[in-house]
Structure formats: structure tokens, C-alpha cells
Amino acid sequence: MSRTFTAADGQPRCAWAASAPDFLRYHDEEWGYPVGDDIRLFEKVCLESFQSGLSWRTILDKRENFRTAFAGFDFNQMADFGAADVDRLLQDKGIIRHRGKIEAVISNAARAQELVAEAGSLAAFFWSYEPKPDNLPEPQTASTSPDSVALSKALKKRGWKFVGPTTVFAFMQAMGLINDHACGCICRQKADAARAAFTVPQMKPAA
């Protein structure tokens, strides 16, 4: 089965980008390009947690609603959310109203603060799990990897929730920790160039 399709501009893209109208722009402009911003990284962890058991199209369609509901995914603000905020979010028809996931991402906000204190930034911690080239599966053939398993375990050890290996692998794909654009996709080379120009955040020295 082909892992690419020919888009309207005549150029090949990852096949999944043809499955919904908004996917092509997301694929071309966001997916697989390296991210070092803590808020964007935390947002993606949260959205991948909400996606568990659902389609990414559902989440992408509601992304702006999620941003509004969760204070732009500023984890310093979210860490202060309490029972009243959970009740508010459970009434918000613009998001996924799943109590367990809502409470999980609020809890994860406090864990994110702790991780920043530990590592210096979320970006430094997440990027410390960037796979070595020899550890990468063939593009778009896997839903987990040894590195996503390791990162999942590290997060769970620190109290994070809804961060299983598959969720973490999807996060790593999207945030550019790996380049999983299909061979032949025009964005694969662009993502490689962006990764080459990206300065990987470094963990702060141990005290």
C-alpha cells in the first residue's frame, strides 16, 4: 500500500494527509517540524491525551476551543485549575467532555511545572529522548518505538497520566523529535532541513 498520495498541486504527500480537508495544511505546516516551545509541547501532549480512542480529525477540529478552555495550554495557569474548572470544562460542548482526561491534563500541568524545575524546560526533557538514527523505524511503519516507551515510562514515573507509548510516539512524530514523513513526501526533506537548523534544548546541569 502506498504511503503517499498526489495532492492537487501535483506533489506527493503522506497518504494520511488526504483523509480530511484540514489535514493537508496541518501536514505541510506543522507535523514533523521540530518544536522547542514549552507551551506548544505541553499543548500537544494534552491534545494527544484527549485523542486517545478518538480520531485526530476530531481533536484538530476542536483545537481552538481547547485552547480557549485550557488557558492557551499555559501549564502555569492550568496547574491552578480546581473543581470549579473541571465542572466548567465538563459543560463545554466545544471540547471532549471526558472527566478522566480533563482531570489528567490538569494534573499534568502541575507535573509540567515540576519537570521544568528538574530539567530547565519541558523541551530539554522531551528532546533528551530524541531517537538515535539507528533506533528509528522505517517511516510510518510503527505506532511505538523504544524511545517512546522510555519517555512514556519516565513521564509516568513522574506522575503524568494518559501518556502511554502510542500517545507519546504520536507526540514525537508531530513535534519533530522524529521525521516520520513518508519516503517520497515533499515535506520529508523540509522537515530534515528544519531539524538540521534546530538547536536541541539542553538539560540543566544536575545540582
TrEMBL record:
Pfam families under this entry? Adenine_glyco
Tell me the superkingdom of the source: Bacteria
Can you name this protein? Answer: DNA-3-methyladenine glycosylase I
